[in-house]
Every structure is written in C-alpha cells, then in structure tokens.
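Design job #97: recover the sequence.
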C-alpha cells in the first residue's frame, strides 16, 4: 500500500472513530467555540512579548491591537496608528495614533503606551523574540512627541521598519503594565475581546466582547477557545456541533469534512512552513555535506501530493515561498539520491548513516511528514529512527534540546522570516546557524533604499540558508479552516497566529 492510500485509509478510520467519540464541551453559554491545534505547554502565556505558539495567539490577538496590521500579502494596514511617514533622511519614522481608542479599563490609548511597549520588547530583561527582529531600535530612539504621536529614530535608514515592527509580539500594552499581570491575562488591551477566563496550563479560555471597541462591537458576545491536537477529536467536535470553527484542519480529515454539507472549508495560500532541523555545530550535521545530503533526499512535490493531499506547496529550505517575488529560486530543488550518497561518502559515511529524529504532532500532519521523510531518506542509506514525543510537552522538553528535530513557523515577510530563527542573536536559532556573512547580508538589506538591490540581498540570504543552513523545509501548507455552515465572518490568514474574530458569528 502506498503512502497516499495509507493516509486516505487513516482519514476514513479516524472519521468513524472520531465521530463516535465527540467531546462533551458544554454549549450552555453564548460563546462561539474556536479550536486551535498548537499547544504552548508549560510556556503558555498571555503576554504578547512572550507568545510561544498558536496556543497563545488564541487569547492574545483578540485582546490586543498593534500599530499596524498586515494582510495575507503582507501589505500594511492602519490599526492603532492611522498613518505614518518617514523623514527625508530615512532615519525617523513618525506614527500618528488613532483618536478615541480606549483600553478595556476605560483609559485612553496614548503615545506613552506605545513607547513603553517597544522599550519593553527590546529590553534584554524581557527576553522577547522581538528583540532580534528590532535590533535597530534603541530605548532613546523611541519617543512620545505628544499623546498622539510617536517617533522611532534609527542610526541608519531602515526602509522596512514598519514591516519589521509589525511582528506577532508588538501588540500594544498599557504603560507600566507588569509582566506577571500580562502573563496571567490581567492587563487590559484595546482589542475587540477581553480575557475573561485564562489560567496558564488550562486548555479552555473565555474571551468576552468589549462593547467600547474602537472599530465597533464584535459580532459575537463571547469566544470560547480551546486547543485540540488529535485530528479525529477535532473533526468529531465540528461534526457534532460541539465546535464552531477549526482554525487548522489536518490533511487526514479534509476528505471527510469535504463530504459534510454542514461544514465549510477555507484555504489560504502558502502559510506555515513544516521544518526538520539539524544543529550545524553538532556531528554529523556539522559537516555541510551531510546537511546537503539530508536535503537532497526529499521529493518535495511528493510531499505536497501524498502527505498533504495537495493542500501545500514545495519549499526550498528557507522561509520564503517559491511564489514570492523575492524567492531566489522559482522551482523546487530536485531530488538526487545518487548525489546524496556521494556527499555522504565524501563526509565519511560510505555505508550510510543512522540518526534519531525527535518528532511530534505539534502541528497537524507533522508526523506524516517525518514518516514520509524517513522513507525517502532510506533510499540514500540514511536510516531515520523517529523518536515520537507527546505533543503537549514537545516545545518544553524537546525543541531546541535535540540536534535533529521538527518545528513549524508561521508565514512572515522575507525581512522577518529570514531573521527570526537564523541570525546569531535570534532567540530561537533552532539550527545553531551562526554565520556572520548571513547576518551582514540581512543588515545590508534592511538599510538598502533601492528595492531591486534589497531584493537581491534577500535572495542571497535565502541561497545561503538553502546551501549551508541546517533547515530542511520541504513544504509550506495551505492552512485550511473549517466552519460550521451556520457560522460566517472568519477568514484564515497566511500568518496562522493572526486571528481576527471581530466578524465571526454563528446563527445557532
């Protein structure tokens, strides 16, 4: 039986099993029930500066706003900042705040809140993943001109500053907000929903509509958010009406949901990347020839067709999709088993090599991907022993702690995506890729005013990652959301953690 047949058979079995085991989530409230598929485990937090995964996004994004938002094509849109402009020398960006915005406690949004938020994010004591993305900012460069105006001044022109400060961590918190209150969800935001119930480590959280929201009250009075990592359980929940929205549907259950007239599916373009990581400073991956061999064994299109049933597209071992205007290559790199064997032999492994791959269903379909990878690698003499780790503990106990593992990254702009896990000062440099030339290339891109030259620098950085880095990135999924037919007003975003529930409503 081939891989595709196995997956389809598994989907059918899960459908029968899952429907019989529908979870008993209480529906005696006025909440719309939204189901996510990622868990932050012990790291779960409501502090925007400390967002770990899509689990945290379930309560952070509805509770807060950022200065700017980005659509699924990374075009920037006004949010708490109505407008912005840059000085003639390119060094000072001015942001004009929207008037009439209040926090959930009634206090008006003022420039001091923005200054506090960004100074806190770049403070080493906060230990936020935002710091490396915004290394061009200094505390003294972030200034409140008046209550409605903030400036950010940098030593050199940073042409993509608005894009770079629009990352998942930069939700505006209140001036003076304490870390312990932020983590516990007890600090007010400006978003459409208020955190009513949140206990770190507990799966269900309740978000209550904020009637004073500056864009108008949300369509639903309440959102109940929960994480379910078993595809069969998630499918059973939406089929039975226990859940209203599945934010990310596993490929294994898409065929069954397609046949259900009570469910509507919506897919994005290239979204989350599925990644296999190798530590570049640890044997056997400290030899670039081994890393290249491990990449060459992947049949990328087969992964798309057989593992993700077409709801994905190939990647070339860097976080920029092939369809991007700045992609360094437009076609997936071909599989080459003979070259992989030759590289392994040159690296001292003529008889093949055996490695442990630590993996988990931390994102729907991840285990199917690594199993397919192991089958492909075997043809080149690479024996991949998959060490399965519970999803609920993977990010805590395994990620960043094993030399060969898995992870997934939400879609980002090239400037952010190429930096967040690959520069020397990145908080989550999961492959130990410490390359001065790479860092210098990204810095040069950030300060390059000519768009054509800037894009060429981004292409150079992508090629360095693909050729030398420790990232095997075979696919970007098309994120598929499932809504009960009685629900409307939610559209999935390519950045899976960009959750907007303002217009989400269900009629029963």
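Job complete. Output follows.
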């Amino acid at each position: 039986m081939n891989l595709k047949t196995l997956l389809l058979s598994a989907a059918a079995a899960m459908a029968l099993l899952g429907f019989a085991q529908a979870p008993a989530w209480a529906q005696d409230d006025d909440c719309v029930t939204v189901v996510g598929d990622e868990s932050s485990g012990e790291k779960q937090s409501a502090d925007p500066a400390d967002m770990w995964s899509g689990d945290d996004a379930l309560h952070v994004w509805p509770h807060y706003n950022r200065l700017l938002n980005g659509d699924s094509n990374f075009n920037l849109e006004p949010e708490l900042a109505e407008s912005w402009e840059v000085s003639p020398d390119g060094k000072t960006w001015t942001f004009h705040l929207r008037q009439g915005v209040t926090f959930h406690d009634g206090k008006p949004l003022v420039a001091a809140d923005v200054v506090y938020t960004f100074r806190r994010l770049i403070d080493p004591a906060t230990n936020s993943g935002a710091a490396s993305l915004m290394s061009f900012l200094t505390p003294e460069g972030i200034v409140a001109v008046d209550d409605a105006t903030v400036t950010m001044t940098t030593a050199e022109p940073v042409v993509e500053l608005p894009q770079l400060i629009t990352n998942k961590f930069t939700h505006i918190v209140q001036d003076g907000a304490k870390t312990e209150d932020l983590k516990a969800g007890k600090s007010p935001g400006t978003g459409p929903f208020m955190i009513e119930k949140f206990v770190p480590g507990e799966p269900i959280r309740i978000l209550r509509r904020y009637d004073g929201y500056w864009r108008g009250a949300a369509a639903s009075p309440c959102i109940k958010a929960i994480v379910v990592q078993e595809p069969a359980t998630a499918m059973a929940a939406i089929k039975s009406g226990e859940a209203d929205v599945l934010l990310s549907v596993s490929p294994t259950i898409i065929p069954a949901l397609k046949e259900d007239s009570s469910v509507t599916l919506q897919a994005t373009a290239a979204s989350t990347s599925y990644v296999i990581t190798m530590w570049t400073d640890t044997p056997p991956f400290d030899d670039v020839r081994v890393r290249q061999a491990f990449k060459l064994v992947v049949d990328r299109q087969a992964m798309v067709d057989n593992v993700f049933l077409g709801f994905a597209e190939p990647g070339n071992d860097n976080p920029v999709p092939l369809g991007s205007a700045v992609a360094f290559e437009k076609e997936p790199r071909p599989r080459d088993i003979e070259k992989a064997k030759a590289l392994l032999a040159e690296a001292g492994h003529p008889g093949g090599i055996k490695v442990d791959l630590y993996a988990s269903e931390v994102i729907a379909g991840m285990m199917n991907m690594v199993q397919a990878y192991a089958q492909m690698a075997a043809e080149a003499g690479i024996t991949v022993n998959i060490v399965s780790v519970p999803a609920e503990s993977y990010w805590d106990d395994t990620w960043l702690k094993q030399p060969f593992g898995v992870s997934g990254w939400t879609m980002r702009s090239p400037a952010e995506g190429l930096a967040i896990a690959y520069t020397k000062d990145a908080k989550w440099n999961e492959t130990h890729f410490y390359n001065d030339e790479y860092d210098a290339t990204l810095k040069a891109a950030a300060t390059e005013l000519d768009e054509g030259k800037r894009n060429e620098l981004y292409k150079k950085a992508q090629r360095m990652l693909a050729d030398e880095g420790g990232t095997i990135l075979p696919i970007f999924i098309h994120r598929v959301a499932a809504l009960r037919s009685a629900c409307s007003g939610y559209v999935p975003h390519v950045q899976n953690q960009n959750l907007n529930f303002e217009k989400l409503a269900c009629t029963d």
